Amino acid sequence: MTKAVRVHEIGGPEVLTYEDVQVPAPAAGEVRIRQHAIGVNFIDTYFRSGLYKAPQLPFIAGNEASGEVIEVGPGVTGFHPGDRVAYYSALGSYATERVFAADRLVKLPDRITHEQGAVLMLKGLTVWYLLHKTFKVEPHHRVLIHAAAGGIGLLACQWAKAMGAHVIGTVGSKEKGELALANGCDHVIYYNEENFVDRVKQISRNELCDVVYDGVGKTTYPGSLSCLKPRGMWVSFGNASGPVPPFAIAELNNHGSLFATRPKLNDYVAKRSELLEGADTLFSAVIDGKLHVPINHAYALKDAAKAHVDLEARKTTGAVILKV
């Protein structure tokens, strides 16, 4: 038996149950992993609350982790017991051990820690596709990053700045603002005290932004559209404040022939070659010093509910992990 955090019914953080589970032997194409660190993300809260529908109940929560291969199933040739690995998955990571498809694993370089690996596979790969694939950031671009002091936000600010962009970030407190400034933001906007649209216009001298990366959702719409220059792109990739309400597509025309997209990581790493491209680019950026991974909060696996409470209350900054 091993330990896991399962959800038997959708609801608040209190439905996260720490309990014994049975882990099967790895089947063909699978490996068994002893996990060391687990990433905590807003998407975990979406599945727990029912905003995103899980395939079945009960389910083991969580979507990214790192660990060590302890057993390989039939036909697995690329991985061996003792290999350090990390992954992004659709559920199942809040556990001390699990089985997982070998073709969706990546090996961790020696210079990447388990703690870093546990938060790079979802958050880091998300930043990779957002800045390199969804809208390719270039030095002449001005970008707006909402929730700039969060796990994705801090990585996005660092990487966008390293790519030469002019970076504006929105944050909820002075402490978070200082953190964002230390991680690549050229300007921070305190959305609880200021109108972020007016501040973007002021900062940009009414030239506005080429792209808005919006993981907040409900409370930043439609303001995000007003921050974009004509033919700019609104990248809505999350719902931290709730889903964006339905809107008329003519709104994009009204704000200057805008582009809008609602991307997800799965569609950018569907092929193993894409997964490896993203992971290699990401790990190289960390090893080369372009990115540092701010892990500011760690909880025991059994305290996953507390981690969700703090995440949803905006009490966390940077990445949040569960230690096994």
Overview of this structure, please?
This protein has 324 residues and is an alpha/beta fold. The protein has two domains: 176 residues, Alpha-Beta Complex (Quinone Oxidoreductase, Chain A, domain 1); 124 residues, NAD(P)-binding Rossmann-like Domain (Rossmann fold, 3-Layer(aba) Sandwich). Strands 3, 5, 6, 7, 8, 15 and 16 form a seven-stranded mixed β-sheet that branches. Helix 3 links the parallel strand 9 and strand 10. Helix 2 packs across helix 3 and helix 2 crosses helix 8. It is globular and about 60 Å long. The two termini are 15 Å apart.
Characterize the overall form.
globular
Order of helices and strands: EEEHEEEEEHEHEHEHEHEHEHEHE
Gap between N and C termini, in Å? 15 Å
Number of domains: 2
Protein name: Quinone oxidoreductase
Organism: Tardiphaga robiniae
Domain Enoyl reductase (ER): 11-322
Keywords: NADP, Oxidoreductase
Q: Which helices and strands appear, and what pairs or packs with what?
A:
Layout: E1 2-7, E2 16-21, E3 30-40, H1 42-49, E4 59-60, E5 64-72, E6 84-88, E7 97-101, E8 105-107, H2 114-134, E9 142-145, H3 151-162, E10 166-171, H4 174-182, E11 187-190, H5 196-203, E12 209-214, H6 223-226, E13 228-236, H7 250-254, E14 259-261, H8 272-287, E15 295-300, H9 304-312, E16 319-323
Pfam families: ADH_N (PF08240), ADH_zinc_N (PF00107)
Keywords: NADP, Oxidoreductase
InterPro entries: ADH-like_C, ADH-like_N, ER, GroES-like_sf, NAD(P)-bd_dom_sf, QOR-like
Compact description:
The chain is an alpha/beta fold and 324 residues long. It folds into two domains: 2-122 and 269-323, Quinone Oxidoreductase, Chain A, domain 1; 139-262, NAD(P)-binding Rossmann-like Domain (Rossmann fold). It has nine helices and 16 strands.
